Amino acid sequence: MSIWKNALTWMAAGISYLWIRLLSMTCTIVVEQGKEHLEDLIANPRPAIFSFWHNTIFFMVYYHAYRVIKKGIPLSVLISQSKDGELIARTAQLYGSRAARGSSTRGGREAFQILLKTVKKEKGSVVTTPDGPQGPVYYFQAGTVVLSQVTGAPVVPIGYACTRAWVFRSWDQFIVPKPFSKIAVGIGEPYTVPRKLPDDAAAERERQELERRMMAMIHKAENFLEEKYGRVDSRTDLQQAAEYQRRKAEREAKKHGRSERA
What we know:
Helix content is 51%, strand content 16%.
């Protein structure tokens, strides 16, 4: 990366840092369901794998900076090697996280080794977005499952819902809370994947269990806001997300067909 491009990337990261911070500061966290799980990790430090869905990155970066990192739990964050990932990585660094670059599609093995070293050798905690970087939305991919299985570190599902939000037409329907939104945060009970699993079917059950826990936590936060304020903008339209994935698959198939003909 050239010096000029590097400077522009850091400038963009600085703008992202300020945008996330200033907007998030206007929002009010009205409840932290399962807060005792986070407080226990702060009081009794041990490696953990914090996991949240890709579409909640915007507010989760801010929340983890001030509720986790500043409370004494350093974090390494798994971030894709895409161009967008470079911006996210630098923004995360400005919030005090260390970036491990890689994903299920690019550099996955190297990134997994970094996270493995962080948890096993350095006794640190990490952050993953188990449905990233390309989805499908709310599908808990196997990487985080294997990381917990190999290291013995528990997965801590975490997420939020908000009363007012912009929801983008991306594969994950990326969520950005609107100013002065009410936010309900959910922190799931830490769950450790057993080290020994008899077969692939058992591994799939563990994956599904973590996915179920992630979704149950989000629905609980949504229900709280619905009952108290009568509005939840952050709900994801799964049908629209599926349509996005279908169109993407069609574009990739056409592109592949053209390359073969060439």
